[in-house]
UniProtKB/TrEMBL annotation:
<dbReference type="Pfam" id="PF01408">
    <property type="entry name" value="GFO_IDH_MocA"/>
</dbReference>
<feature type="domain" description="Gfo/Idh/MocA-like oxidoreductase N-terminal">
    <location>
        <begin position="44"/>
        <end position="169"/>
    </location>
</feature>
<feature type="domain" description="GFO/IDH/MocA-like oxidoreductase">
    <location>
        <begin position="184"/>
        <end position="308"/>
    </location>
</feature>
<dbReference type="GO" id="GO:0000166">
    <property type="term" value="F:nucleotide binding"/>
</dbReference>
<dbReference type="InterPro" id="IPR052515">
    <property type="entry name" value="Gfo/Idh/MocA_Oxidoreductase"/>
</dbReference>
<dbReference type="InterPro" id="IPR055170">
    <property type="entry name" value="GFO_IDH_MocA-like_dom"/>
</dbReference>
<protein>
    <submittedName>
        <fullName>Putative dehydrogenase</fullName>
    </submittedName>
</protein>
<dbReference type="Pfam" id="PF22725">
    <property type="entry name" value="GFO_IDH_MocA_C3"/>
</dbReference>
<dbReference type="InterPro" id="IPR000683">
    <property type="entry name" value="Gfo/Idh/MocA-like_OxRdtase_N"/>
</dbReference>
<dbReference type="InterPro" id="IPR036291">
    <property type="entry name" value="NAD(P)-bd_dom_sf"/>
</dbReference>
Length: 440
């Protein structure tokens, strides 16, 4: 069997039913008549804008010609196909024409959008371009799946969201592929159900994003204020920033310490510590960097009725208290506490139960699951796992983090959009590599 997730297996075995998974199958829609069967036999033609590392991998996945060398490639989703390719780089054009001679190639993305060769596009381009391309697609009736992050600054992302709201018949999604991880889906379901009570505190250490200087030298725009819009907060960490707010909620206050060019020859942030406060009084912390070759990926969520710990985005431990922490506080003696702290098994069994579960995804399978989810949304109207409008939450959090670091004080979230853009433009001007930004 090819490298795949459980969700893949369900999608891949014919079109008799549609499965959407959380911690278990939540929805089964049977094909009731020939008309529905005809719809489910259709494929959405995806156009890829930008054929770099990510876009090139998607092209390989969608055609069955492989993705990244040395990494097992997932099967092409049953309702997706490659409709066209687009890039301004002559070298990329030559590679595409040789590898995919049957696929139309465009140098102008607007021409591709209006060509009739594609039903939807994926924006695998520098981050600043995501809102611009998405707005054009939405206004011209072309479904759009934006890569993370939704954009660099919240003002442009909000304008993109407003455009999407004005065109509800055009599908708008975002490539938050880690939302397909069944481990995180189950955790979200547990938290949302309130079975463990209210969140009191969450902590995420995500230092498994090691990048050497050779990575930053791949492109002139990489790790620049004017070209990329920042460092780890706009490139690697958006995955976890999205999951953090998706599961734990959107914070109302942010205080952050960022280091710029820490152990690297770059000028943007690559070492970040965030402290957050939530409307219910809960707190959180988020730590990330790109200079730790060993790396740590550990999420802890403390709740009034238990605790959730995730290691490596692959193994989760859910500890359910038999009494809430408030009840324990009111009733436990110091002897009980000593026995519990010293690891007394009998006492522990009296206090809580422990459940563990795992997830094993291969790289690329999650991305294809998001594309299949997007295609099924277009074909059937099924709800999106990652609606494009939700991308603004992670952008706001990243903006608030940098603004707090620049100003040296706690800031509100959502961020002051105009103030953030003003401060960002100061750094773009000082850098002197790209023009400052004017809104969109």
């Amino acid at each position: 069997m090819p490298c795949s997730t459980m969700l893949y297996v369900k999608f891949w075995r014919g079109c008799k039913c549609i499965f959407r998974l959380g911690n278990e199958i939540q929805k089964v829609q049977f094909i009731k008549n020939e008309k529905e069967k005809e719809v489910m036999e259709k494929k959405i033609r995806f156009g890829l804008i930008g054929i770099g590392a990510q876009g090139g991998a998607y092209a390989g996945f969608l055609t069955g010609k492989g993705g990244v060398q040395g990494i097992p490639a997932p099967e092409c989703p049953p309702h997706c196909t490659l409709g066209a390719l687009c890039d301004i780089d002559p070298e990329k054009e030559a590679i595409c024409r040789e590898k995919y001679p049957e696929i139309p190639f465009y140098k102008d993305w607007k021409e591709m959008v209006n060509s009739g060769d594609v039903d939807a596009v994926v924006t695998t381009v520098p981050h600043y371009l995501h809102p611009e391309i998405a707005i054009y697609c939405l206004e011209h009736g072309c479904h759009v799946l934006v890569e993370k992050p939704a954009g660099v600054y919240a003002k442009a992302v909000r304008e993109m969201n407003e455009c999407a709201a004005a065109h509800p018949d055009v599908a708008f999604g975002i490539m938050f592929n880690q939302r397909t991880n069944q481990l995180y889906q189950k955790i979200k379901a547990i938290v949302d159900s309130k079975e463990l009570g209210e969140i009191r505190r969450s902590n995420w250490i995500i230092n498994s994003w090691w990048r050497p200087d050779s990575y930053y030298r791949q492109s002139d725009w990489r790790a620049t204020w004017g070209g990329e819009g920042g460092g780890v907060l706009v490139n690697q960490a958006p995955h976890q920033l999205d999951l953090w707010q998706w599961i734990c909620g959107v914070p109302s206050k942010v205080y952050a310490k960022c280091l710029y060019g820490c152990h690297r020859e770059i000028g943007v942030e690559n070492d970040v510590t965030i402290v957050t406060e939530y409307p219910n009084g809960a707190t959180g912390s988020f730590i990330t960097c790109t200079h730790d070759p060993i790396g740590t990926d550990r999420l802890e969520i403390d709740l009034s009725g238990g605790k959730i710990v995730v290691e490596g985005s692959a193994t989760a431990t859910v500890i359910r208290l038999k009494k809430s922490e408030a009840e324990m506080n009111a009733t436990l003696s110091m002897l009980d506490v000593m026995q519990l702290v010293q690891g007394n098994a009998a006492k522990s069994n009296e206090m809580f139960t422990v459940e563990t579960f795992e997830n094993a995804d291969c790289w690329g399978a999650q991305h294809m699951t998001v594309m299949e989810d997007f295609a099924l949304h277009i074909l059937t109207g099924a709800p999106l796992l990652a609606p494009g409008s939700e991308g603004i939450h992670g952008v706001n959090l990243a903006n608030a983090t940098l603004l707090s670091s620049w100003l040296g004080k706690e800031v509100d979230n959502p961020v002051d959009e105009d103030l953030y853009l003003e401060e960002l433009n100061k750094r773009i001007a000082e850098e002197g590599l790209f023009p400052v930004r004017q809104g969109k």
